UniProtKB/TrEMBL annotation:
<keyword id="KW-0732">Signal</keyword>
<dbReference type="InterPro" id="IPR007348">
    <property type="entry name" value="CopC_dom"/>
</dbReference>
<feature type="signal peptide">
    <location>
        <begin position="1"/>
        <end position="43"/>
    </location>
</feature>
<feature type="domain" description="CopC">
    <location>
        <begin position="42"/>
        <end position="138"/>
    </location>
</feature>
<keyword id="KW-0186">Copper</keyword>
<dbReference type="InterPro" id="IPR014756">
    <property type="entry name" value="Ig_E-set"/>
</dbReference>
<dbReference type="InterPro" id="IPR032694">
    <property type="entry name" value="CopC/D"/>
</dbReference>
<dbReference type="InterPro" id="IPR014755">
    <property type="entry name" value="Cu-Rt/internalin_Ig-like"/>
</dbReference>
<keyword id="KW-0479">Metal-binding</keyword>
<protein>
    <recommendedName>
        <fullName>CopC domain-containing protein</fullName>
    </recommendedName>
</protein>
<dbReference type="Pfam" id="PF04234">
    <property type="entry name" value="CopC"/>
</dbReference>
């Protein structure tokens, strides 16, 4: 039994093999981290209409929020409030778009000049809840 072939003995790993193993482990770890990032991603707001911080010359007919992930319609809500905190009625909340990524609601009455805040709560199809706000101003 020569050169470490006996049970329980170890053969030193060559530097070249050690480098290859280290590269493989690094590559595999990077792949797993990238996969985990996409699997555990929450739906994030990508576009709001009216846009965040926008000043509009007229009342918008609706608010529309586009997200990075698909949404579960039964668990998605949008509200609108004046700067004073007074709620503004919105109608026909709906989720649509190619991948169910757009939450929208119509505004049945014209908004008076002032600042407004859109508040949203959504549940993405991967089961993660997210919420946030977007503000705009109506100033004819």
């Amino acid at each position: 039994m020569r050169n470490g072939s006996a049970r329980g003995s170890s053969t030193p790993i060559s530097k070249r093999n050690e480098t290859m193993v280290l590269r493989f482990v690094t590559f595999a770890t990077a792949c797993l981290l990238c996969a985990a990032t996409s699997v555990f991603a929450h739906a994030r707001l990508t576009i709001s209409d009216p846009a965040e911080g926008a000043t509009l010359r007229a009342s918008p007919p609706a608010v529309s929020l586009t997200f990075s992930e698909g949404l579960e319609p039964a668990f998605c809500h949008v509200t609108l409030a004046a700067a004073s905190g007074e709620p503004v009625n919105v109608d026909r909340e709906k989720v649509g778009g190619d991948r169910s990524t757009i939450l929208s609601a119509s505004i049945p009455k014209s908004l008076v000049p002032g600042r407004y805040m859109v508040r949203w709560n959504v549940l993405s199809t991967d089961g993660h809840k997210t919420s946030g706000t977007s503000k705009f101003t109506v100033a004819p």
